[in-house]
Structure formats: structure tokens, C-alpha cells
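PROTEIN DESIGN WORKSHEET
SECTION A - STRUCTURE
LENGTH: 260
C-ALPHA CELLS:
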């Protein structure tokens, strides 16, 4: 067997939130390229279909579910639809999230706080609970990949409000806890912690808050931002049998930003 065969995902099934664009799309395409069929969940029906067509071009099956998983009831419904229409899955990637608001903690309303926690943490819990339960019930030695952030480890510079740091730290610790709880089922749970990738939301941040983005780049040792396609190979690695003995880990991909 070639070492590359250990990264094949033939016959596997991926459920990914926020899979229609940005980092989610690149992870979905990479995992499809490695052999898996894909259930895409996102808000934008047009983008969903565009990404689904790219997946089908690999000869894979693609399902699309148009839901906003930042809303707990829609997140639950997306999981129910996926399990009913596609059956239990082998790989779960919880990718939805974002900072969105630059509001100081002392000025943030409880309603905004809860909305942002739901965006960055609650949907991860719901999908782990529902999709993970199906893995356990069907005796699937699944792979859970939760997308956190380096801001789950270090606070962002010159950014107001700390909902994002709090939620992403929660994602990291939820993942570590599930790794312990579900190891006996052969399920692994790991976290990817990206630095700054120039996805569409961060392009908007660079326009609205150029000083924040410029300072961030100044502190990246490699001197460049991440490209969305940089994350695909890492997702394939974590989804594959190569990581059967890795669980509870947080893999940082940030150009060295957190090294100093």
C-alpha cells in the first residue's frame, strides 16, 4: 500500500456547515477530491449549488441543505434532514463562524452576545450532538473536525469585544472533551485553528478596519496571509485513517503568528 492510500476517503460521507464558500468550500472540495461524498449546509442557495457542481465534477454525490445554522432551530433541522436523506456520516466539519461585530464588551447587549455565541459555538455543539450520536448508534469510527481560531488561544489585537475569543475557546475545549468521551467508540475529534485567511469576510474587515489587518500581517513571520486552499490538505489529513491515533488536538495554521 502506498502512503498516499492512507489519505483516500473513498466511500466516506462528509457533513460540513458553511461549505459553500471560503474555507468551507476548500475543505469540502479537497475531501471530495480524496473520494468522499459531501453534504453541504449553508445559507446561500446559489453558492451551495455552485460548490455542489464542483463536487459532482469529481464524480461524487453532493447534497445541499439551505439553512442558517447560527440559528439553533435551523441547525437542528439541517442535521435531521441530512440524517434522513443521506444517512449517517463519517466526517463532520463544523465550519460556520465569524467575528462579525466590533463592539466593546462593556457596550455589547446580551441579545448580541447570545447571537454571536450561537454563531460561533452553539451550532458546533448541536451538530456534534446530533451527527455524533448517529455515528455512535451506527458504530461508525468517525472523524470530527471543528474549526476554531487562533483567537481561541490568544486575544486579537486592537479588536473590541471578546465574544469571538470566548466562543472559539469553547470550541477547542468542547472538542477536547468529546475526544475523551467518544474515544471508546473509535471517534476522533480535533480542532483546526486558522490565523488570518483572506476570505470574503476578512476582505471586508480589511476595508472597514485596515489598521487591524495591517498590524496582523506585520506580526505574521511568513509575511503573508493564508490562502483558502491552504486548509484543504489539513482537513483531508484529519478526516483520513492517518489520524486514527490523533484526538483532542488543536492544529494551528497561521504562518507563525502565535509563535511570538
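SECTION B - SEQUENCE
RESIDUE ASSIGNMENT:
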Amino acid at each position: 500500500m502506498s502512503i498516499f492510500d492512507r489519505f483516500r476517503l473513498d466511500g466516506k460521507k462528509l457533513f460540513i456547515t458553511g461549505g459553500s464558500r471560503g474555507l468551507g468550500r476548500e475543505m469540502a472540495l479537497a475531501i471530495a477530491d480524496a473520494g468522499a461524498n459531501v453534504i453541504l449546509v449553508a445559507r446561500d442557495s446559489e453558492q451551495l449549488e455552485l460548490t455542489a457542481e464542483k463536487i459532482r465534477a469529481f464524480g461524487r454525490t453532493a447534497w445541499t441543505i439551505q439553512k442558517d445554522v447560527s440559528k439553533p432551530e435551523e441547525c437542528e433541522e439541517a442535521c435531521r434532514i441530512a440524517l434522513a436523506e443521506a444517512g449517517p456520516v463519517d466526517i463532520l466539519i463544523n465550519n460556520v463562524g465569524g467575528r462579525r461585530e466590533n463592539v466593546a464588551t462593556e457596550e455589547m447587549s446580551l441579545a448580541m452576545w447570545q447571537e454571536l455565541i450561537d454563531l460561533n459555538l452553539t451550532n458546533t455543539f448541536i451538530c456534534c450532538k446530533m451527527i455524533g450520536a448517529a455515528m455512535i448508534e451506527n458504530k461508525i469510527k468517525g472523524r470530527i473536525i471543528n474549526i476554531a481560531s487562533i483567537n481561541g488561544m490568544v486575544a486579537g489585537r486592537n479588536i473590541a469585544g471578546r465574544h469571538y475569543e470566548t466562543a472559539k475557546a469553547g470550541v477547542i475545549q468542547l472538542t477536547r472533551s468529546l475526544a475523551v468521551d467518544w474515544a471508546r467508540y473509535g471517534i476522533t475529534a480535533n480542532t483546526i485553528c486558522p490565523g488570518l485567511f483572506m476570505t470574503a469576510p476578512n476582505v471586508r474587515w480589511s476595508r472597514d478596519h485596515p489598521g487591524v489587518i495591517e498590524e496582523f500581517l506585520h506580526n505574521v513571520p511568513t509575511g503573508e496571509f493564508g490562502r483558502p486552499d491552504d486548509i484543504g490538505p489539513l482537513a483531508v489529513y484529519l478526516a483520513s485513517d492517518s489520524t486514527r491515533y490523533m484526538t483532542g488536538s488543536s492544529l494551528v495554521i497561521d504562518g507563525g503568528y502565535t509563535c511570538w
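SECTION C - NOTES
The domain at 3-197+228-245 is CATH 3.40.50.720 (Rossmann fold).
The helical segments are 22-33, 45-56, 72-85, 110-137, 163-182, 200-208, 210-218, 232-239.
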